[in-house]
Amino acid sequence: MGRTNRSRKRREEMSKAKKARYDVKELARLKKTLGIMDTDEDMKELSEVATVKTAKELKIEKKSKEEAELEHELQEQREKGENITVVNEKTGKVHIYNSKTLKDQHGSYPPWYKPKKTAKRIRKRDHARTKRFKQTWTVTNVPL
Questions:
Q1: For 50, which DSSP code?
Q2: What is the C-alpha separation between 144 and 141, in angstroms, rounded?
Q3: Mutual orientation of helices 55-78 and 115-132 as an angle, nearest 10°?
Q4: How confident is the model at residue 23 (pLDDT cuts 50, 70, 90)?
């Protein structure tokens, strides 16, 4: 059996009233947390206390941060790795690691190396490359 619109509308009305009630409480709690008291002479604007950003600004900021990170990785990829010598404190053995491949002279990775994390980073980089790729010539651009 289908639901009636009458009960749905009543439920929406009640939820709107409840939301309005909770919004007032939440604002009071936020002001208390930020140290803004609700007195008439000492009321500050929210913009003076906290920086307000829109969702669009946050999205742009996150995108630019990711692009910078990917650009840094691409720059690292272009550079040739340099050899870094590390001595194991427990065994006293010397390992010579390549900074680009992270492998030592025996071909093994350092103990802090996490292959899942590296795979994730590589997937992210490849995805960004495909996003930036713009094909100049396609079948649709061919004049007839």
A1: S
A2: 9
A3: 110
A4: very high
Cβ atoms of 119 and 104 closer than 8 Å:
no
Six-digit token pair at 4?
Answer: 């009636």
Give the sign of the dihedral formed by CA 94, CA 99, CA 105, CA 111: positive
Closest to 84 (Cα-Cα) out of 70, 105, 64: 105
What number of CA atoms fall less than 13 Å from residue 97's CA on the CB side? 17
Given pLDDT bands bounded at 50, 70 and 90, which one contains residue 40? Answer: very low
The residues that bridge with 139 in the sheet, in sequence order, are none
> Are 104 and 113 within 8 A, CB to CB?
no
In sequence order, what DSSP letters do the residues of 58-126 get, joined into one string?
Answer: HHHHHHHHHHHHHHHHHHHHHSPP-EEEEE-TTT--EEEEETTT---TTSPPPTT--HHHHHHHHHHHH
What tokens does 129 get? 């490359």
Q: Tell whether the torsion through CA atoms of 17, 19, 22 and 24 is positive or negative.
A: negative
Which pair of tokens denotes residue 17?
């009233």
DSSP state for residue 47 in the 8-state scheme: H
For 121, how many CA atoms within 13 A lie in the half-sphere containing its CB? 13
